[in-house]
Amino acid sequence: MGVRMAAVAVLILISLTALSNSVAVGGGGQNETKVAPPKIDFTRYITYEELNATLQAFQSYYSDILSVEVIGKTWGWNATSGAYDTPRDIYVVKISDNVGVEENEPGIFINWHHAREWLGPMLILYLMQSLVENYTTNDTIHWIVDHFQIYLVPMTNADGYVFDGDGNRSQVVGSGWRKNCRDNDGSGSLDTYVDFWGDIHGEGVDFERNWDWDWASGDSNPDSDTYHGPAPFSEPETQAERDFILNHSINAYMVVHSFHGSVLIPWGNASANTPHDAFYRSLASNITKRTMIEGSPTSTYQYGRPDEVIGYTAPGGSFDWVYGVHNIIGIAVELEPTWSNAPDAFTGFHPDETKILTYIHDFYEGLMYFIEASDVTLTPKEQGAAQPLPYIIYGHVTDSTGAPLAGENVTVEVLSNGLTLNVTTDVNGFYMVNLANVRHVIGDTVRISAAGVSQDITVDSAGRKEVNLVSGVVPEVNPTMVVVLLAFMAVLIRRL
After folding, report:
1. pLDDT band at residue 11, thresholds of 50, 70 and 90?
2. Most buried residue among 54, 155, 400, 473 by CB atoms closer than 10 A?
3. Distance (Å, rounded) from C-alpha 459 to C-alpha 118?
């Protein structure tokens, strides 16, 4: 009898624990009445028309967290008709939990410019799909979508992309077309020529020389691959991006290029450091630590200014403009392959389809770190040297059974100066803070406290640390269910 009673007692305790109130893992994010979500095929390059259909399908399926907006039109060169009769839409994809509202949250803007650098659109589309697909299952992504506004421009240079082959490698001429399709001489057609080595050149403007930052120092030869255009922001495509950035709250900007395998920081136009150089180098270092080369964890991307890493400067660049004019975090990435791993320029700009996912995966974790670390308003440039470095602290707050504690206040205190950050856990009991928003240095002790418990950590050079807090709080139980359960147990005991 004693053994039976002990077993019943254990059963009661287990049942009470099972009946405790718990917080559901974050829901929403997709239309669950639909059978299957849209999927992008990353084993081949997308066409412009497929891109249009894909964005509309994602907006329809994930309408509560993803929206698509047309922000401008291209010149519209149509090589088939030989006329400028096909202006193409420039899309911005927004991903956020309140997608129809401009919120007071960090805005992250990621785009792509050079026509032949085909991995850029694929990386941006991969990020889009990853964020919406994993919103309900990945706590980090759930936090990002709920606490950031992500703006993605997968194909600014649609004319150039279509002219370069529209995702079909067999249609590419030489090493490919770089610029947009501007009619430089007003003849009504895009005039091009093929040089001695088989590469195509001609009219058009290089988007990464057309922004209003040291623009006049750029290339003034209209036939050059780096032609800066007749004036800053002369192109409808760069005007569209400029105006969008000016009309939205943007904290950080990334332009995606290829090929080299590097992360580039300002200044791009000069062999000189910015006032925020320490911050930029820390950010870039932490991004590259999370990258690979050709799938190997023993090799990573390089980082530094363009003159340091790729050997030349680039006046009129977009990431210089966002930082130099607006004090927004601005960087560029040069995706793989590296120069040593590309047999020729054609392959470097248009890697074999079998390499698409490898090169995306090699940079993806670095891309996610860039987003996580971008919830920062940079100090004025005259105070740039005092800008705290990015350092991400994240984790879960749970009760004694492991159930997530939602709505808990998490305090992060730098013990050397008493400065604090406060954040509230989400429905998953998850939290994330960036020490770039409070003064600290490497080696500082930081205390993370929530739900009556705390943990101290030392800020190191890793750039990111997980800190999970387990409260001693006994989970709350449902009183009605307890009464029902006890009545059932009383009957069971009498029968014993």
Report:
1. very low
2. 155
3. 38
**Which residues, 6 or more positions from 495, have their beta carbon under 8 angstroms from its beta carbon?**
none
Q: Where in the chain are all domains bearing CATH 2.60.40.10?
A: 389-470
Integer Rg of the chain from CA:
26
Structure tokens at 62: 């994930």
Residue ranges of the chain assigned to CATH 3.40.630.10 = 48-383
Fold classification of 48-383 is Aminopeptidase (3.40.630)
Reading the block at residue 210, the tokens are 């057309």
Fold of 389-470: Immunoglobulin-like (2.60.40)
pLDDT band at 477 (very low <50, low <70, confident <90, very high): low
Average pLDDT, the chain: 91
- Token pair 């922001």: residue: 233
Specify the pLDDT at position 348.
Answer: 97
Measured on CA atoms in the order 135, 462, 106, 150, is the torsion positive or negative?
A: negative
**pLDDT by residue (tens digit) across 232-283?**
999 999 999 999 999 999 999 999 999 999 999 999 999 999 999 999 999 9
CA distances from 350 to 118, 206, 457, 493 (A): 6, 18, 45, 74
DSSP 219-249: B--TTSTTB--SSTT-SHHHHHHHHHHHTS-
SS3 label, residue 226 = coil
The answer to whether 37 and 29 have CB atoms below 8 angstroms apart is no
Mean pLDDT of 365-369: 98
- The pLDDT of residue 490: 53
The string of pLDDT tens digits covering residues 26-38 is 344 444 555 699 9
